[in-house]
Amino acid sequence: MLVSRIFPLRTIRAQYSVALVRNNSTQTDPEHISIPKRIHRSPTDILNALSKTVGQDPTAAHYKYHDDPYLIPQSNLQKRIYAMAQESGRKAARWLRQEHRELFQHSEADPPIKAFYPKMVFTEESEVDEKCLEGLIYDSEVTDATFVYTLMQTKGMPVSDSLKQSLLELLCFFNHTEPLSPELIEERWFQQSLQGKERQRKTWKDGELAELLFTELEPKTSRTYAAIIRGMCKYFQVERAYALFQEAYEKQIELDVETYNSIISITNFLKEAAEPRWELCQDLLNKMNAQGLCPNLGTMNALLSSISSIGNFRLARGVCLQVLGEFKELGVEPSLASWYYVLTTFCRERGPVSHVLVDILNEIEGKEFTIRDPKDTYFFVTAMDVSRNHLHDKHTAKRIDKLLHHGKNYDLIGDSYKESIYYRHLFALLCHTEPLEEFMKTYDLLVPNVYTPEPGIMEEVVRAVETNGALEYIPRLWSDMIIFDHTSRESLVNLVLKIITENRPSADIPTHQDLEERFNTIAWDVYTKIDEQSGARTQRMSFTGQMLGNILSVLSRGKEFEKAKTVFKKLDKSQHQIAGTPSYTSMVEYVDLCVAEKSPTEALDCLEYCIENGLDNVALARKIKEGFTLSEMHIAKLKNLVGDDILKE
Amino acid sequence: MFLTKITRPGTLRLLRRPAQLAQFSSDGQPPSDDGKSSEKPKKASEKEQKPKEGKSESAADRLNRLLASMSTEEHLPLSNQVKIPQATPKKHKKASKTKHDDEKPENIVEAAKKVAELVGDKTRQTEAELLSKLLNQKDDGKAPKGKDGEGGELSLSDLIVGMKVDRSKKPAPAPTRGEFVRKAIASRRDQQTRTEVRPETHQRPRRPRPTQPVPSAGTVNLFGDRLGIFKNPESLRDSPDILETWDHLYKRELKLAVVHPPANYFEKMILWTEQGKIWKFPIDNEQGLDEEAKVDFTEHIFLEQHLEGWCPERGPVRHFMELVCVGLSKNPYITAQEKKEHILWYRDYFESKKELLKQVIVDQKEAAKGGTKSLEN
Q: In residue terms, where are the PPR repeats (chain A) (predicted)?
């Protein structure tokens, strides 16, 4: 009731204010009301608009994870496992539906939802026809399409040439391998990292159905040639692709732009040296020009990719700019992939430093991108790499980051692998160039939900903390390390131990108030972690003398006598398994603690250990003598260990 | 063990940084990574640096002492590593513009001071000029050193980092790293306030951000040259992809490359909408009923038209069929075609039973007549 009363009031007021505004703006013609034309919205437009109102919240885990403290992943491994587990559940459901499709005959939805149907299963007895094959090709079901085609062949059913052509294109595009189902989003998100390694190697399947179809199709049209050439280029069967290309050229079969693009993209395999390769590219472009073909974005990217692999730096730079200029004249807007190739051309590991990234950013800053080339997703990660390793400049890095978070550009980050490399570069760069407080702000913002630092980056962060003497961050970083499962990295653990040993928190700084206690916890934590680790682990960490010495130092300073005793016992008992000896200072600190705790037995044990391990013992013996009122037995032991001299002094 | 690892350039930069910061704010010297900056400021900076070298002797001494004290001791306390680069700016400060120069033992410095006093007028400036002249020559002979340039500094840091220092030689109460940095920052602040009072001592331009690249250094005109192959774009024809299936697959691939796990519920709904799993917006309860959409609603509701031609104008059959039509018009579950077929089934039915019906009607009439007769009677 109340609501219904309030709402009309509000609407009236709103209308009134709208009317006022209208009057002000269109005073000349107050009577005329122009009704705007209806804007046709796609089904997802309103959802997109709503989605834009939901910002990214770095304090929360990604939406895909369950909103449950026990199910929020922290480490990189957990992130992967949890997401994949969810997807695997979906996969299992799909498998069940597929295996027991007879149980799912009911149709709940009207109109029926195709995505929920079980997949068609084709056997030797299946009734197949052209329409069925067409559907399979459209849905990119490579295996089924191949099966149905062979089935139709054995049954002696005719297949039209256009359908054969379609099948040829499908097989060439996917190289006879079943693509990953579009439903498996998580799998694609975590899997694409492998693609980088697979490329640049011949993977084309020789003598398969595609080539059979190619020979069968008569007369051969430009479409037939285009399909097979593009397929061979895509999977690096370069010699045969080029041979077919020349064959088509001699037969005066006119090929299209995309096919030229494929050939250009493999020129770096056809010609080893830089000059002949560039000449070949020019030759191909001239052919296109003679044929009256207008080059497109694909041509530019193919050219740039070929140029980026030219070893001759000066030549590569020159022609790269020429290509950009030429295509600008032709009205082709470069995509992010083009800039990616420009970056790889200009910023080489051993080449001179180039600021081309700054120019590129000036060009593209504030723009929103959609994907236009598969390699578009390589831009952001490469740009960040360049600003870290090539320019060492946080300002470009920040500009890149801003661009990435502009509009829907984040979609172009690629996959989880590229995303984490991107953040790795960003973190390493900021860690080196920003003041620590600023850097820690970024750290707090992005870790752990957006990015989990790898052990290497963690080491950089810890070192930065060390250099800045900001000890107060150490406990926080240590707990992060535990969560991210970095505590099995010996170098990291040693580094933390070294820092907490060598830097004593001072009581007069407010941020250091409870640090000593926390350092004790860390040291004890390290000890128990290494001591209790199970034998099943592949890479076990073992104690070193240095490590135990550091733990001992920290614990001694914290007056944790019982714990220090345990650590020393460990050091003493398993001398033969422990590599190296602790530093002398940690021994002194332990003895000091023994003195404070009035335990001469432990102090003498320590002295004995020092003597056995060749550490300076005279000063230690003196300390023991002065620190305690020793009993007869202890004096005898001391005498036994260091001789009479000290006692006489 | 740790020391050997530390010699990576990245770490060096880290170690150097506090010194750099302090130095930067105290004298505005360009940072060491300005290898790209133009020559002019560099020269100026060299000139300015000369006074700093006034204590280079003592620096060399310190270095020698460090070298001499190298030992096999395993590790080096942190404070030692940073100490040397940190101390330099302060030294520079003193040498360049404070009056404490006379306390120093160097002959050169004292001599220079005396000369400067003789000359009078701008005593301090003369002194500085003299010193810089002297020390510049001295420096030229040697390898670049101290904070003169990246290379020099690197090598020094390298040297120090690679060294192992006997700890017994270091001053007994070594401050912790934290204290040290704090002190450095405090002193930096002091210096800053002081420099603000006397800005004329700063001739070099201050660079606001040490790591910002010089934009002019490597600017590339991205769209400068041309290949000159496609000379007249007007004559070229744009052609769509001749391979339809390939094009379709390529677009599919591009789309999948930017489909990421949805980041909120709306994105999830977008994904489901695209996969056809949920109803599209705007919601319409006849969505997807494409066949039925072709049929007008009147065909569903006004069914009497199907009675035309066979059904009697009135009478019980008519009455019955009208009721059938009303019922069918309210039925949402069957198509208009099915409704029509249903009605036509009745037509055939009544057709086949025509004789029987006629008989029944006649009988009824007669019975009715009989009834009226009896009434009349």
A: 221-255
Across the interface, whether the CB atoms of A173 and B276 are under 8 A apart is answered: no
- The Cβ of residue B367 has, within 10 Å, a number of other Cβ atoms equal to 10
Q: Determine whether the interchain pair B176/A358 forms a contact, defined as Cβ–Cβ distance below 8 Å.
A: no
Q: Say if A136 falls within a structural domain.
A: yes
Burial class of A459 by CB neighbour count within 10 A (0 to 12, 13 to 18, 19+): buried
- Least Cα distance to B47 among B129, B161, B150, B168 occurs for B129
Does B202 have pLDDT greater than 70? Answer: no
Chain A residues close to B287, C-beta within 8 Å: 111
Q: How many independent structural domains does chain A possess?
A: 1
Q: pLDDT at residue A199 above 70?
A: no
Give me the percent of chain B exceeding a pLDDT of 70: 41
Q: What is the pLDDT of residues A242-266, one digit of tens each?
A: 999 999 999 988 889 999 999 999 9
**A589–chain B Cβ distance below 8 A for any pair:** no
> What pLDDT, on the 0 to 100 scale, is given for residue A44?
92
Residue B208 is assigned to a structural domain of this protein: no
From chain B, the residues in CB contact with A107 under 8 A are none
In this structure, the answer to whether residues B189 and B269 fall within a common structural domain is: no
A contacts of B14 (beta carbons < 8 Å):
432, 463-464, 467
Gyration radius (Cα) of chain B, Å:
50
Identify whether A418 is part of a domain: no
User: In degrees rounded to 5, what are phi and psi of residue A253?
Assistant: -90, 120
Angle at A521 between CA A519 and CA A525, to 5 degrees: 115
* pLDDT, position B120: 61
Domain presence at residue A180: yes
CA–chain centroid gap for A583, Å, is 41
Instruction: Establish if A145 belongs to a structural domain.
Output: yes
The pLDDT, as a whole number, for residue B245 is 92
Asked whether A472 and A512 are in contact (CB, 8 A), the reply is yes
Name the residue among B222, B267, B281 with its Cβ closest to that of A51: B267
- Give yes or no: residues B30 and B120 share one domain: yes
Domain count, chain B: 3
Domain that holds residue A226: 111-255
In a domain, B240, yes or no: no
Structural domain contains residue B239:
no
pLDDT above 70 (res B204): no
Over pLDDT 70: what percentage of chain A?
A: 92
Residue A64 has pLDDT above 70, yes or no: yes
Is B93's pLDDT higher than 60? no
pLDDT of residue A313: 84
- Tell me, yes or no, if A63 comes closer than 8 A to chain B by beta carbon: yes
Cis peptide before A111 (omega within 30 of 0): yes
Q: In terms of residue numbers, what domain contains B349?
A: 291-376
